[in-house]
Amino acid sequence: MNVSGTLSGLSLRDLEYVVAVAELRHFGRAAERCAVSQPSLSAQIRKLEELLGLSLFERTSRKVLLTPRGEAIVAQARIVLEEARRLLALANGSDGALSGRLRLAAIQTLGPYLFPHILPQLRSAWPELTLILSEGRTDSLLDELRDGRLDAVLLALPVEADGLTAEALFFEPFLLAHPAGHRLCGAPHLSLGDLDPAELLLLEEGHCLRDQALAACGLSARGGGVHATGLETLRHMVAAGAGCTLMPLLATRGDEGRTATVGGLVDYRPFDGTSAGGRPPGRVIGLVWRSSDPRDRGLRDLAALLHRTLPPGTESVLSRRDD
To answer: Domains in the chain, please, with CATH?
Structure first.
């Protein structure tokens, strides 16, 4: 292979096309993201495959899959594109400011309840910034962040942060969600010791909130029992009288701040300050991004804005952790 000839045929735009198809697994949606026609995108990717002498994708009538060699090419393409963004940041003097597109994700037990609160402030602070929002579970979000498929993630700290920067934002307490008329309704005080482990409803394995709830209650992972796939299902299980659960504060509020009681069938009780530091059980929410991201200064500005925009009922956390 003629290396100089191959390099002259490579373009960053073609790499963007390849990464878009790899992420979306769909040529049409990738073309929409890249603001180009699908025939043009497909033609450029085929041209790149010919240049490299390999197939990047398996194409069928129903789905698009990366080939094993394609996975390695896409991983390197993400690195090349990130370094290209760093070069442009140095050239235009933006010194890491946020611009263009920001792929921001949150864990599933946080995103639907936090995004409506922070979006007006984000749009006001960076009106030209294109926000692409998504949700997922902690492990998959961190994998996508490390691979360059995401730019920043909102999740519960601490996390394994090798090569990542984590900024703590706020402490979110857990409330007890129980059926209306439950035995704990009239209790003057509420502590974790008042809970009956047999009544505790949990999310299915893979959700960090499940592990946090078990840890808060001093319980080990349980194999049996009924588990929910998401918070809304969990809330409806409580409404149906199946048991009680620990619910993050932000998830107890519906539209316009109304308490989400599922037709009056669910009540929420705060816990006394029974955990370390006198806090009730809860979690610390933080913003995490790659330490190598050329927009580090802008992402720190984003963390500072989120810290100033605390949701009602949460508590400021000022600690910083860089790894």
So the answer is: 3-92 (1.10.10.10), 101-167+286-300+318-322 (3.40.190.10), 171-278 (3.40.190.10)
